[in-house]
Structure formats: structure tokens, C-alpha cells
Amino acid sequence: MAQKEWVESESQVDLEEPELYNVIMWNDDYTTMDFVVEVLADIFHKNYDEAVAIMLDIHEKGKGVCGTYTYEIAETKVQQTLKRARANEFPLRVTMEKE
């Protein structure tokens, strides 16, 4: 049986970094602060202090960045957040924008 030979190629593949997207949570007058902290912990994997800091940004500045991800991950986190908000009857607005 013949042995397979590995041939090294001198061609170089340039890989581009994927574009990143910020997931933005917007303030409203109905969604509770506790719910926002819970979502930030569960979906965005923030510790309690980080979640509270982001929640306060949302409350005081009108919006806050929950995290920065590749397109597919950002889109999934937006959908998970909206699904949970609707299930709890909150009108929470979550969007994503290119970094």
C-alpha cells in the first residue's frame, strides 16, 4: 500500500476578521430594571455588577451596549431577548448595529 505524501503549499490565505455588531438595549417606561439585569445575566452572561452597570446606562442614557458579537451571535441574542421580553409582556426594544 502506497503512503500518502503531504505537499505543503506556499500560497497564503488571508483571513479577514468578521464584522462585529453591538447589541443595544433601549430604555422604556415599562420594562423593570430587575428584568433587564436578569436578561443581561442569563442571555449576555454578565456578572451582577456588569449587568447593573449596563442597566443603569440604559436607564440614564436611554440605551446601553449589552455586548459585541459577530452578526449571527448578535442576531441570536437579540431574538432571545425579544422572545423573553414578549413572554413577560414587556415592550423592551433591542437592536444591533455594526461596530
Automatic annotation (TrEMBL):
Any one Gene Ontology BP term: proteolysis
InterPro entries, sorted: ClpS (IPR022935), ClpS_core (IPR003769), Ribosomal_bL12_C/ClpS-like (IPR014719)
Signal peptide: none
GO molecular function: peptidase activity
Domain named Adaptor protein ClpS core: residues: 16-95
Keywords: Hydrolase, Protease
Family as reported in the entry's similarity comment: Belongs to the ClpS family.
Function summary: Involved in the modulation of the specificity of the ClpAP-mediated ATP-dependent protein degradation.
Subunit comment: Binds to the N-terminal domain of the chaperone ClpA.
PANTHER family associated with the record: ATP-DEPENDENT CLP PROTEASE ADAPTER PROTEIN CLPS, ATP-DEPENDENT CLP PROTEASE ADAPTER PROTEIN CLPS1, CHLOROPLASTIC
Protein name (Swiss-Prot/TrEMBL): ATP-dependent Clp protease adapter protein ClpS
